[in-house]
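Deliverable D4.2, example record:
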Amino acid sequence: MKKKSLIYLAALIAAMLCLTFILLFFERESDESSIKTVSDALWYTVVTLTTVGYGDCYPVTGPGRLAGAVIVLCSLGVIANIIAGIVSLINGGIMPGIYLKHNRKKNWYVFSEANDKTNSLMADIKKNSDAVIICLSEKKKWKFSWEEIIKMKNDDPDTLHLFFMDEREEDYLNFCAAFEVYKNYIQDETIPFHVYCMTGYKPEKIYVNLSCFHLYENTARLYWSRYPLDSDSEKIIIAGNGKYSEAILRYALQGNVIKPVQNVHYHVFMDKRDFLMNHYCMENYFSADKSADERDSVFFYSSSWREERKLLEEADRIIFCSDSESENLSSVSDFRKYFSEALDKKIHVLAFSSFEDIKSFGSNQEIFTEDIVVHEKLNSLAVSMNELYRQSSETEQPDWNHLSEFKRQSNLAAADHIMYKLRYLNARNGREALEKFEKLDDRQKKECRRMEHERWMRFHIMNNWCYNAERNNELRHHPDICPFDDLSESSQAKDDYAWEILGNIK
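Output generated by the structure prediction step:
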């Protein structure tokens, strides 16, 4: 019970006791009075406050009747408060507690706040599973703290999922709030329950069962999974300054490997300074501002996309992805107004609302789903890939729980790429893909290995790794960041696990 409620209750009891003793003081001297002892006075007060009124005790003196009248008048408020308190206790503590205890074996999804993003995620979870949804900001329904929720799940913490997704101007505060909750439960670098934190802040140490994600990254991942490359020579326009365009370009460059050798052109209309400063090794692999025959090219423009009419006509897709939805929709409107209708089908637009007449992406209903936020399937696949790599490696390798955050992200990127591997093998599912891979001759397998090496190398380069004869993880040096043909035969075959994992996909 809260401190204010306790103070109020204590004051009420003290007032009633004072009235009771005032009543007794005047009544016990009267011969006609039926209130002679403390027990008589207390009995009268109780039956009066509860509106029972047996009539066996009643005041007869003037001052006693005055005190009794006050007690009678107080009875209306007291009984109302008692009823309200009982109802509040049942609704706010007893009933929710009984409900949680009855469903303690189910998955619990606990949210810090109800907002547009969490509401979308909660609706998707309800749609896909028989889970318990708890939103701690709904104080009238859930009067529990994080610690009380965790304590209730002590016997089965793996089914507890905590989400810190408040809408804040400084989203690092979501991580601070999450850390304050989970820091006392860490054991052997593992959090016993699952924690999901929407934040752009990247902590130095990511514990097992902690997932830090961001809206921009999830949007970029969703876009390329929904609209993957159509050909190995596609021309793509990315128009818009901000975090979304940077994420979409980064995920494209590190993951869009459709063939062992390809020549995709990315034409980017955004301020390139920050992007090139953050990815200062990318020119070691990609051709910048000029075309190359056997590698992807990135062209940056300081002009407006409106000035490049010929490029718009030649492009295979045009992605409007500024951080501002109104700016994106304004760009679409201008495009439709001033350019040929034949180009309209090329448009992809980042819009936080859904539209029927354009290929839009990025709405809360699309981004905040269990599949995108929780990543259960993707994480499971990434863990399996790491286990296969450990088994095939000649040296001892750490398991998933002891991988660095970079290594985990590397495995997740490999899992993201599986859709392209299925397409490359022209397979409908994982089992068929593995069967086809195993039947390939040496030359064909070599091309598959070349493709995976290109993907692996691009991921490392976009994270600013570079070639060095001696490996040094702290300096981000690796001897395998080089052309595939320069690798030894064992190094060429070391990533076969990325193809063999296809058999685990349903």
